[in-house]
Design a protein that fits this description.
Layout: H1 3-12, H2 16-38, H3 41-58, H4 68-86, H5 107-126, H6 129-140, H7 145-152, H8 156-176
């Protein structure tokens, strides 16, 4: 059993520290994933919080058919889609507001790395939402194609096709800006 599942079981058994550990481990990645839907980091953080509140209040059963992280992200996705259905309007926040320089040991290397991330996230923000979502789950969060398919409610073949088209679209978007990102 993975760490998230163990912590959730602890929480269900009455140990609130289990939920604290889950939040600490998954809040950042979940927020960034939900941001790929709403394109507003503040709103994405609210939806991330709502996801955890849902776990605390409803205490849904984790069956173990997927990894805990896959299950959690699927819950967050569903909450976000419900929100989007109810609220057709949403505003965008520039992606570069999410990043702050924190590496004081090597400012130049940190600056270049952060600039590369900003370019990447700006390019991701220009892609179709489904493309940015599949790339976020597969590459930034490290989900397998099967886990990504489960979260996005698609088949493995559809995910493979989406990843191929999304990488191509991202590469083209980055090249428009004169930037070549390694690994694409």
């Amino acid at each position: 059993m993975e760490n998230g599942a163990e912590n959730y079981k602890r929480f269900l058994d009455g140990d609130n520290d289990g939920m604290t550990e889950i939040i600490r481990e998954y809040k950042d990645g979940l927020s960034l994933y939900l941001n790929s839907f709403v394109r507003n980091i503040c709103l994405a953080e609210e939806l991330m919080e709502e996801t955890f509140v849902s776990l605390v209040m409803k205490k849904p059963k984790f069956s173990g058919k997927s990894s805990f992280k896959t299950w959690l992200y699927a819950i967050g996705r569903n909450i976000t889609l419900d929100y989007m259905k109810k609220n057709k309007k949403h505003q965008s926040v520039p992606i570069d507001e999410m990043y702050e320089m924190a590496d004081e040991e090597n400012i130049e290397r940190s600056y270049i790395r952060e600039e590369n991330k900003i370019h990447l996230h700006r390019a991701l923000a220009k892609l179709k939402p489904v493309y940015s979502q599949v790339l976020h789950l597969s590459y930034l969060e490290g989900f397998t194609n099967s886990e990504t398919a489960c979260i996005m409610q698609r088949s493995n073949r559809q995910i493979e096709n989406l990843i191929y088209r999304a990488k191509k679209a991202l590469r083209e978007e980055l090249e428009k800006e004169g930037f070549v990102y390694e690994g694409l």
